[in-house]
Amino acid sequence: MNSNSYWRDNLRLIGICLIVWFTCSYGFGVLLVDELNRIQFAGFKLGFWFAQQGSIYVFLVLIFFYAHRMASIDKKHDVDED
Amino acid sequence: MDLQTLTYLVVGATFALYIAIAFKSKARSTGDFYVAGKNVHPIANGMATAADWMSAASFLSMAGLIAFLGYDGSVYLMGWTGGYVLLALLLAPYLRKFGKFTVPEFIGDRYYSQTARVVAVICLIVISFTYVAGQMRGVGIVFSRFLSIPIELGLIVGMAIVFLYAVLGGMKGITYTQVAQYCVLIFAYTLPAVFISFQVTGNPIPQLAFGSEVAPGVSLLEKLDQIVTDLGFAEYTSGTKSTIDVFFITLALMVGTAGLPHVLVRFFTVPKVRDARASAAWALLFIAVLYTTAPSVGALARLNLTTTIQRSPVGTENANMVYAERPEWFRTWEDTGLLRVNDLNNDGKVQYYNDTDPDFAPRAKAMGWKGNELTVDRDIIVLANPEIAGLPDWVIAFVAAGGIAAALSTAAGLLLVISAAVSHDLAKSVFARSLSDRAELRVGRISAGVAILLAGYLGYNPPGFVAQVVALAFGLAAASLFPAILLGIFSMRVNREGAIAGMLTGLLFTMGYIVYFKGIFIEPLAENIAANWLFGISPEGIGAVGMILNFTVSLIVSAATKKPPEGVRVMVQSIRVPRSN
């Protein structure tokens, strides 16, 4: 049944996105913030920049990426709404 | 024209706009009333979601909160945006495919249980009412501060406006007013930010000004770090909260965001599953405009305020502001009570420093300082910005209209999910299954009206705990609704018993922990300090632990009880794919 392979593709994509989501916010912005703060980035300490700016940009790109990729996965498995 | 007349004009014009939209988009069916006929363009829905989500607190208080918390303020920035990733990937598309009207309805259907549905309704009502009381309060405060009318009158005007478009137009009405409100609030927020950025750093884009130089070779943040640490405050870019606490607060706010019913229901209103995903992306884009500007405003304002008082390095001659020579905006805000000076050492100058820092105390003593003399209300950061930047009066009038737009749009969204829960999830499904569409619409309108009155009352007579329950609202959403919805989509095995046990565990644990330290209705049972907290996690972050408990209990109880009926399997299969063959 094609809905099973569709669901597997979806779960894989979700997994990848969530790894990036976690790494850039909880990773760079919280857990590794002191290490990254030793690096200067465009007038910011890098860890601080991730916590107050970078993570938000990453979230934004992630959702657009997911929406875009899912649209083609929908098509590939012939479950799109058109 | 004086400022007050101008403010009346601008605020009045925005109100006229909202009311005009309300009349144009009157709800004619329950479908219109609950989910705007499922006919909202994803970009419009994104904008409406952004206005729905950004409350009086985001607009008025967040930049100020960050200005005084520094790095610790990151929990709000990441927490209140990262939840949209969870929404877009894990919840929104499937709830849209489910295709009915409310969040409790999904939980009731997926877990084949009226009890589960009623538990979800209880969570929803507690979450939404705590939130809405704060919004109405915000409306009243903006009215009284900018239009000099009593808070009560401001509240009544605000209630009347929300009443008009929420009761008449339902979801359809609030969606299109929220689009207008987003435009008003984002304009009002970014304009002063652009001017202040330009004045301080020469770069007009706040997100870039944040990293710019304020003197040759010295960046804004370096200067800020140096100035505040000189006065005994914590370094701006480091903060004071423990790592585990920052982690759990961020998690609770993120997951809470994804579990808030008034945000979730917005994704029921778009035509297609694909639109639900796109809509979440647009929503975050519109939110990010404010959320990436706020930390920059916070840092710039902290620098402005500190250097207004402390004009040159600590200890140099004439370093402190002479009270009699304070700037004009300083006087204006003293009149409102948001800025207060108390000249403790009677030297006619103002000292602003951290008088609780033991390392700084000897220096302060040597200079004849007898304690911090300046008290600043955080809300001033956004409110006073246009005046500090010397912007024209019409900008200040827009900031007032923006604050009211932020509060009204969120209040309307919350009131609508409350009324939908009452008319659709309780009246129609529990008490009177034979209710006709028209009668249900009437019940919906009446309960929206009652909810507004109640919210207005709570806004006027805020129970002592309103400030403390923000943590409760997010914590409860994270610990109760989010896991139940997520498991309902991603697991076939989780059953009625598991979901109900999980929701109740999450709800009671989170509520219990918060009451234990913050004392809602009762006196706190323990002092709210890090040494007493479980694993060092503050009540603000405990919702994340409640969520983990909910997941664990749901999975264990489900494994020990019998599988859900075959119909549930079919339902889950169908919500997982956009178009079933």
Automatic annotation (TrEMBL), chain A:
Domain Sodium symporter small subunit as annotated: residue spans: 4-80
InterPro entries associated with the record: Na_symporter_ssu
Transmembrane region(s): 12-33, 48-67
Pfam families cross-referenced by the UniProt entry: DUF4212
Keywords: Membrane, Transmembrane, Transmembrane helix
Record bears the keyword Zinc: no
Record keyword RNA-binding present: no
Cleavable signal peptide: none
NCBIfam families: Na_symport_sm
Protein name: Sodium symporter small subunit domain-containing protein
Originating organism: marine metagenome
Lineage: unclassified sequences, metagenomes, ecological metagenomes
